[in-house]
Structure formats: C-alpha cells, structure tokens
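Hey, I'm writing a tutorial for new members on how sequence and structure tokens pair up, and I'd like a real worked example in the thread rather than a made-up one. If someone can provide the structure for the chain below, I'll link this post from the tutorial.
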Amino acid sequence: MTSFKLSEKTALIVAVFIAGLCSIVYELLISTTSSYFLGDSVKQFSLTIGVYMAAMGVGSYLSKFIGDRILLSFIWIELALGLIGGASVPILYGSFHLLTVGQYQILMLGLTALIGVLTGFEIPLLARIMKHYYPLKTNLANVLSLDYIGALAATLLFPFLLLPFFGLFRTSISFGLLNIALGLFIYGYFRQTGEQKQRLGIRVVALSIILGFIVLLLYSQHLLQLWESKAYSHTIIHAERSPYQQIVLTKNQDETRLYLNRVIQFSSRDEYRYHESLALLPAAQVQAPERVLVLGGGEGLLARELLQVPSVKEIVVVDLDQRVFDLGRNHPRLRAINANALYDERVRMIAQDASLFLPDPSNEAVARLYSTFFFRLAKARLAPGGVFATQAGSPFHTRQAYWCIVQSLRDSGFKYTLPYHVYVPAFGEWGFVMAADQPFQQPQLPAGVITRYLEPNRLSHHFEFPPDISEIPGTKANTLDRPVLLDYYLKEWNSWRKEKIQ
C-alpha cells in the first residue's frame, strides 16, 4: 500500500510540472502566431498575457464548484486543454485568410481565454488531490513551485528548441498530445475513479483527439503549404522556417519575390530602384570609399550594387539569418538576380544580429533597430568622412514613421542628415536617409557605375519633398525608453490597409 501511494505522489508531481509547461507553451504559441500575422508583438503578447491571466483567475474561482470527483474532473480538463491548446495554432492558421483583423483578434483572444480558464482549474484541483499526501503548507509549496518550474522550462524550450526546429504548427499539436498523455497518465494511476461508462468515455475521447492530431501531423506540410499559398499571389518555389523567420520565394514568369514572415523584401522587376538608391547615392558622398558595412541584405542585392564602385575593397554583410545567405549563394534565381555577388572575394558574410555586431561599450540590452541607441552604435563605428544610410519606410503611406526615423538620426549625434525618396512599384513611394558629420555634396552617382533607374542629371528631385510627404512638425525620435516608431507606423498603416486581410 505504501509503495502504491508513493507512485501516486510521483504521478501527481509529474502532472504539476507538465501542466505548467504546456500552459505557458500555448500562451507563447498564440501570441507568436498573432505577432507574425498582425505585427506589433508588444500588443499581441500583452493582450495574450492579460487575457490569459484573467481567465486563469476565472478558472481557479470556478474550480470550487467541482465536488468529490476531483481526479475525474482533472482528467477531463486535461483532455479539453489538450484539444483546444493543441488545435489553437491550426485554427488560427486556417482562419487567418477568412477573417477581418478584428474578427481574427476576437478569435485569438477567445482561444486564449478558453485555455486560461482550463489552466486555472489545474492548480486548485491538483492542490486538492495532493492534500492526501502532504500537509497544506507543504502541498501549496510543492504545487506552485513545480508549476513555476514547468513554466520556466517552457520559456527556455520555446525560443531555443521548439520554434526553431519544430515550428508553431507542429509544436502546438505536439503539446496538445502531451496534455492528452498527461490526462491518460493520471487516469492510469487512478483508474478506479469513476464509473465504467465514464472511463470508457475518457478512452474514446482521448483516442479520437489523438487520431485527429496524428492526421494533422502527417498532413502538416501539405496544410502549411496550402495556407501559405493563400498568403501569396504567385507560385511558391521555396518555403522554409529558419530559426529566426519564415522565408518564402515566389515566382511569376520571370519575376521573383522574397518574403520574410510574409512581408515582401523585394520584387526582381523593380528591386534595382531600391538598391541603387540605397547603395550608390550614399557611396557618391564619400571620397573613394574602400570599406562598406551592410546591415541586412543577406540575399546579396545591395552588395551587387556596391561592387560596381571601383574603389570598394571590402564589403561586410551582416545578416541575422544564415539561411538567407545560403539562398543568396545557392538558389539559381537569387544568384541570377544578385549576379553572384556573394561569391565575390571582396564580400565577407557574417550571420549575426546587426545590433550585436556593433560593439556595445555600456553592455546594455540589445538595441532596437531604428532607435537613437542603435544609430549611436553605428555612428561610433563610422570611419572619419563616412556616411550612414538607411531605408526608412514610405514617406507617403507611413509619413510620420518616416520622419520619426529622420528625427532619430538627428538626435543620435549626426551633424547632418539628408532625406530622399524614390518610387518602387512593389512598395510605392519609398524613403531613405543619409547621415554624416560633414556637409553633403550635390547629389551625384559614383563614377563608372551602370544604373537602370537613377539618372545622373535627374537626381535632385529625389531630395525634394512635396507638401503631402513633407516633414510633420513635432514628430518625436524613437528611443529605447519610448519606442514611438511602432505606434506611428501601425497607426498610419492601419488607415491604409483593407478591412479584410488578403
């Protein structure tokens, strides 16, 4: 009898740990999925955490109405939690293209609330179950500490193992199966609980959910390709999830497009407008530039333009994702577009976060790009007489966000800034900014370069801003403490986007 009770205690300890692990993973899955679809990760994570915690409170309160059949109730709750939590990401993926932004947000918060309520039942029920083995003081300490340790395990596993190697879809289903397994695991130790009819119901429901999830896992690749194809207007020729992002290449006859997390990075039909403007106009402001640092641009298109400048001896390209470098070097379509730039001996590739590549003398947290903090890091690395240049979004569609970046560069210590813009059909009117500590010369192109868009005698109009895209007085700089850029961007972009997600 003693041995049997020890086994029961072991089963319950495992149950508490897994319960804490699964519940946090579901929360991370839903908030991450919504961040990919809707952007504004701060908003999505905040909403998820807030609704989840409030719903847990509701579940904890409702648990007091569960009578004597505590174990049986716990098992049913685990089955329900496994079903809803495991199916949450497939539901969000499948419904994204059918709902408006508001409808999707309601669905996402509804799933979060359901999971939160069910999770809220777990700790009170487990505490009541374990009171048979421990005094109240020890019981509460054990249950809460194990639940929190499970939560810690989830926060460590999710970014370093689950998301990079399994992806959102498969992780969701796998942890749904884990929740089902937890219910069956507890059932195996307490099978005397409940009537025969109820025990049969547990088996039937659990087996049905398991079979359904196995089917989803088997067809996961097909389903993901089907859902991904709805997000893109052209045929997908390459799709993968790297440890950092979703990478998709599409084709439409001779046109190739690159998407990162569903956001277009370039179209081969007009990308030269963007890359000529970002590479060659700043290069012309430096007397015989020799060394160039490119932050981003792992596909090699910016390097292609810079390699035209005769004086350039070294181009260091820093990109977060090694897989983007691999595609730029190995995919036939990308190699044709970048003219094999990544094989040039003058190009050195470094797979690293751009903000980590720039030394941080104060050892503070990683800076956000487009903040005054990051721009100061870039300025500190700039050689005397050098020029810093960045793309800055659309001065037409996201006008205040564009001028926020300009203001951020001004507040970063650069003595001179020079905004300019070009028209890129895939993006619309697109803005850039140069910054330096010496006055800028008359706009020109480096000697000897060949361009398809920029004309040496017609550069001045790119530096002129008509009233509808001119600077907005009072626009604030983007800092780490007050990251206003995202607010500006989302406010303006949401006024342009269609009511229904395409």
